[in-house]
Write a structure and sequence with these properties.
By secondary structure, the protein is mostly helical. It has helices at 4-21, 23-28, 32-42, 60-91, 94-98, 105-133, 145-164, 173-186, 198-204, 208-221, 227-254, and strands at 51-53, 56-58. The chain has one domain (4-254). It has eleven helices and two strands. Strands 1-2 form a two-stranded antiparallel ribbon. Helix 10 (208-221) packs antiparallel against helix 11 (227-254). The chain is globular and about 60 Å long.
């Protein structure tokens, strides 16, 4: 009987082999951080005053950069957990074939999530390196942004796979793209959450990216505290709940 570890590794390796032929798609994702940092440092930061964070004034670029690391992790995971997952699930019917082997649906979900997390963590790590080179990191705790990025990737992957099980056709992905843009702009990435009305702040705190942005920012700027434990627990909760629901949804559709 095939082991769970071997099965998950096989799913990940299949994705690696596939993207060896389309490596340009992967590499393109590494250039986005460069454009963002250059645009903000040379543009917005020259017209926006420093922002108060953790009781101190922080340069606007230094405030935004950690949030963009979290966004990088989200985008890297979201593409594979939605568009690519749907293509394999509905168009190629790959998973129908895979589960005829000893590989289970749970193995498939975990394997696809792990692959998307590897991609998202690679993007986030490259962004982190750039922020260090730009002198935008104020604390050695920033190294913990790498595992935090992996956790962001897992939560987004779980949500993405779950949501993809409801997709009827390619047009439905317009809603996904809109949701990613709303998260990108509205998760306190470019400004403190306190600029929102109280009820909007509550809504924002029910989104995974907000907690990822908060964690990356506090680690990069050296203000990590007990509140960040709450952010971690929320991301773990998103991952566990939506991963479980995605697994159940796929069991109903693939084993029906």
């Amino acid at each position: 009987m095939i082991t769970n570890t071997f099965a998950v590794r096989a799913i990940v390796e299949r994705n690696i082999i596939f993207f060896r032929r389309d490596w340009v798609i992967l590499v393109a994702g590494f250039f986005e951080p460069i454009f963002w940092l250059i645009g903000i440092s040379a543009g917005l930061s020259t017209i926006i005053d420093d922002i108060e964070f953790g009781g101190e004034l922080v340069e606007y670029t230094a405030f935004v950069a950690p949030g963009l690391i979290a966004v990088s992790a989200m985008n890297g995971a979201a593409f594979d957990a939605t568009f690519n997952f749907y293509f394999k699930l509905k168009q190629l019917k790959i998973f129908d074939s895979i589960i005829t082997t000893p590989v289970t649906i749970t193995n498939v979900v975990i394997g696809e999530a792990v692959w998307s997390v590897l991609r998202s963590t690679a993007y986030a790590t490259s962004f982190l390196i750039l922020t260090v080179l730009f002198g935008l990191v104020a604390s050695p705790w920033a190294i913990l942004i790498i595992p935090v990025s992996a956790l962001i990737g897992f939560s987004i992957s779980a949500i993405g796979i779950f949501a993809t099980t409801f997709v009827r056709n390619w047009h439905d992905f317009d809603y996904f793209s809109l949701a990613l843009q709303v998260l990108f702009i509205g998760s306190a990435t470019f400004y403190p959450i306190t600029v929102y009305p109280s009820w909007v702040q509550v809504v924002v705190q029910f989104t995974p990216l907000y907690h990822g942005v908060a964690l990356c920012r506090s680690l990069a700027l050296g203000t990590a505290g007990l509140a960040d434990v709450g952010h971690l627990l929320v991301l773990v909760g998103f991952t566990a709940f939506f991963g479980w629901r995605a697994n159940r949804r796929l069991e109903k559709s693939l084993l029906a």
